[in-house]
Amino acid sequence: MSGFEDLLTPEVTGIAVAVLVMLAVGGIIYSLFQPALSGTKRRDQRVQAVAARPQSETQRKQLRDTDRRKKNIQEQLKEFEERQRAKQDKQQKVSLKTRMEQAGLAWEMSHFIMFSAVSGVVFLILGFIASSNFLVIGGFGFAGAFGFPRWYVSFKRKRRFNAFLDELPNGVDIIVRGVKAGLPLADCIKVVAREAREPVATEFRKITETQIMGVTLSEAVSKLPDRVPVAEANFFAIVVAIQQKAGGGLAEALSNLSKVLRGRKAMKGKIKALSAEAKSSAGIIGALPFVVGGIMFVVAPDYISLLWTTSTGHLIMGGCLFWMFIGIMIMRSMINFDF
C-alpha cells in the first residue's frame, strides 16, 4: 500500500482529475450533438416535412397558388414602398399650385397673386389703424401679402384632408356592399362618386374620369394619394392594386380596410380628447400676457404705453414676444401627436 500511496502524488492526482473532466465534457458534447452528427435529426425533420406535405394534387395546387400569391403580394408591397418613398421626396417640395389643388381651390397663379395683393392692402390699412410706425405698418403689409395667403391655402388644404378622412370609411363601406352584391369595382366607385359627401365624391369622380380616358383601374386609383397625400388614401390604393394584380377576396380586404380606417379615426378622436386639456392650458397661458396688457391699457394707459413709446420698451416687448414664441412652439410640439 505504501508503494501505491507513493504513486498518488499531487501531480498524478491533478492529471487524473483533468482526464476525467475531459471525458465527462466529451460525453456531454457527444450526447448533445450525436443526433445532428449521425443525421438522425435531419432524417426526422425530412420525415415530418414529407408527412406534412399535401398528398392530393388539389392540395398541392392550392399550396402552389398560395405561395405564388404571397410572392406577388410581397413584390407589390416592395414596389409600393419604393413608390411611397419617391412620393414622400416629392411631397417635401410641393409646389404652390399643387397645394391649391389639394386644398380644393380652383385658382390659377393669377388669382393667388390678386388675392395676395388685396390681402396686403387690407393688412396695410390695419397697420395704419394700429400704429403710425412705418416698421409696424411694413410688417403688417408683409404678413398680409406673403404670410396670410399661404396660411389660408394650408388651412383649406388641412380642412379638406380632414373631411376626406371622415368620409372615406363610408365610401369604402359602399364599395364593400356593392362588391358583395356582385357589382364590379368600377361601378362601385361610380356609386361612391354619386352618393358620397365631398371631397370623397370629387376624388372618386376623378378616378372614373381618368378610367374613361383609357387608364386602368389600378393606375387610376394609384393617383389618389398624389391628390390627397394621406396614409388612408395610400392604404386604399395598395389594397385595390394588390387585388387587381394578385387576386383574392376584394370584399374581405376592403372590409378589413374599413375597420382599420375607423380604428384610426377613433384613435385620432381619443388622442384629441386626451390632449384637449393640454391645448386649453397652452391657449390660456399664451393669451394671458395679451389679456393682462389689454386690461392695463384700459386701467393705466400712461403706465403701459412706455412699452411702445420708448426704445427700452421696444426691446422688452421684442424679447417677451421672442420667448413667448419659443414657449408656444415647445408646447405645440408636446401636444401634437403623430400616429
UniProtKB/TrEMBL annotation:
The UniProt annotation puts the region (Disordered) at: 49-68
Q: Does the keyword Transmembrane helix apply?
A: yes
What topology does the record note for this protein and the membrane? Answer: Multi-pass membrane protein
Keywords in UniProt for this one?
Cell membrane, Membrane, Transmembrane, Transmembrane helix
Residues crossing the lipid bilayer are: 12-33, 105-128, 134-153, 280-300, 312-331
Alphabetized Pfam families for the sequence: T2SSF
Which Gene3D superfamilies does the entry mention? Type II secretion system (T2SS), domain F
Task: List locations, semicolon-separated.
Answer: Cell membrane
- InterPro entries per the UniProt record, alphabetical: T2SS_GspF_dom, T2SS_GspF_sf
Q: Where is it found, in Gene Ontology cellular component terms? A: plasma membrane
List the biased-composition ranges (Basic and acidic residues): 58-68
Where the record annotates domain Type II secretion system protein GspF, the positions are: 176-296
Name of the protein in question = Type II secretion system F family protein
